[in-house]
Amino acid sequence: MKSKKVIRLTVHLLGDWAAASMSWLGLFLYRKNFIEAAKHGYTIPVNQDTKLYLGLLLIPIFWLLIYTLTGYYQFILRRSRLKELENTFYTSAVGVIILFFALILDDSVSGYKDYYSSLGILWVLHFGMTLLFRLLNSTYTIHKIRNQKWGYNTLIIGTGINAVNLFDEISNQKVKEGFFIKGFVSLNSKEKNRLPAPLLGDWNSLSRLIRENEIEDIILCNEPNESELIPQIIDVIQNEEIHLKMLPSDYNLVMGMVKMNNILGASLAEVDFEVMPYWQKFVKRSIDILFGLIGLVIFLPFFIVISIAIKMNSEGPIFFKQDRVGFKGMSFKIIKFRSMYIDAEKNGPQLSNDKDDRRTKVGKFLRKTRLDELPQFYNVLVGQMSLVGPRPERQFFVDQIVEKAPLYKRLQRVKPGLTSWGQIKFGYAENVNQMVDRMKYDVFYIENMSLALDIKILINTLIIVFQSRGK
To answer: What's the CA gap between 335 and 317, in Å, rounded?
Structure first.
């Protein structure tokens, strides 16, 4: 399906580009032949108008940027025609209004009615042409899926009567929904049903099964006595690039993560792991890149001074690198200014505290002002971290935290941050129990994630830095 996604994405991009160009050309000709002709009393020839050519080049780029910001090009093979209508209607309205105030409002016209007609003509042309291309593309895709030419490799988690009945229902649908069921995954159910497809393994091996079978969809179909396993399964699945659906009777176990998706006779709930609208994620990453660059440039004098102070105060390297667990459980090396003596963890991983004698004199100041975190602007710039997000921990401590609070895995749904809500409200943790307590604030953050909350956290972090309230 990957090659098909690339091809269909290319077709959608070309269609959107063509629609944007044609609608702008239509508006341009309308203004020349009607609005300007009415004002001047004669038809103005287009000839070699450089503004037209410039518009035909730049206007489609503007529209493709709008569509990217709204996340339109995600899941391009999973779009319904109703969704196409809804998305095209709203994005066309927003984009046309932006173009109106940016490029059309300063036109020379006979009266204000000409502005309204230009706005209306552009919206009708752009909406109509864009929707036409998109409906043709979506109809082609839907036709391929319903005729089982295309589809999504799917696992059914569960081996009880619910799972078998769901398999039969999907298999007997006259109009297919694209599920290519590769097999079942056991939940150690007491039900001993004869399975109509291979039993591939149990839920503990889900990550391996997803990779080996190139799984795109998972249907969680448990029995009532297996409901307690659902949160654990979701914690495993959330780090995989798949679409998860489940029976609606278990909504209460994934509150805040569920949206409805009716699939013909089988009413399934689709679990949504996205914590922010796509446009906000795009802006958040853009801000990370911008401030990552600015931070490395602006704080360069501090880097020099701190580096000299570290070398003069104690032996060892200037920077300290350490493996941390980040987004979707992936490991990365976090970079900090060294604040402790070398071999500070010769007796194994340890957390710091107010009376930690492993800290150097310079290190105490760096940690108190949090200046030791400055090199992490590099981690932010390359995409391993964000300015705001739960603080990353070492695998050694992650394993201990998960034993006490399995909910901690939810934090891996977002990139770790230079600062966090947990850091603001709780501060540095000195032991695993305190890490668990701090986790509650970070879970609150990811369930209420927004650009506004990020700004609030950054402002509070600056206050803490200036007040030197770190450890």
So the answer is: 12
Taking the C-alpha atoms of residue 197 and residue 156, their distance in angstroms, rounded to an integer, is 10
CA distance 34 to 38: 6
- Evaluate whether 158 touches 220 at the Cβ level (below 8 Å): yes
Is the Cα torsion angle 457, 463, 468, 469 positive or negative in sign?
negative
Q: What is the crossing angle of helices 300-313 and 361-369, to 10°?
A: 150
- The Cα-based distances of 403 to 187, 399, 407, 408 in angstroms read 21, 6, 10, 9
Helix (H) or strand (E) holding 333: strand 331-337
Q: Are 276 and 284 in contact (CB under 8 A)?
A: yes
Output Rg (C-alpha) for the chain, integer angstroms.
28
User: Is the sign of the CA dihedral 82, 84, 89, 90 positive or negative?
Assistant: positive
pLDDT, position 264: 45
pLDDT at 188: 76
Chain-centre distance of CA 351, in angstroms? Answer: 31
pLDDT tens for 373-395 read 999 999 999 999 999 999 999 99
The amino acid occupying position 16 is D
Residue ranges of the chain with pLDDT lower than 70? 1, 37-48, 105-112, 189-193, 248-267, 468-471
* Gap between the Cα atoms of 401 and 403, Å rounded: 5
**What was the pLDDT predicted at 76?**
87
- Write down the pLDDT at residue 109: 59
Q: Please report the pLDDT score of residue 275 as a whole number.
A: 75
- Three-state DSSP at 310 gives helix
Residue 439 class from Cβ within 10 Å (0-12 exposed, 13-18 middle, 19+ buried)?
buried
By CB atoms closer than 10 A (0-12, 13-18, 19+), residue 408 is buried
As given in the structure block, the two tokens for residue 151 are: 């589809």
Say how far apart CA 248 and CA 258 lie, in whole Å. 9
Q: Which H or E run contains 421? A: helix 421-425
| CB half-sphere exposure, 261, CA atoms < 13 A | 19
Contact of 231 with 253, CB cutoff 8 Å: yes
Question: Domains (ranges, CATH) in the chain?
Answer: 2-146 (no CATH), 152-271 (3.40.50.720), 278-467 (no CATH)
Cβ contact 240:217 at 8 Å: no
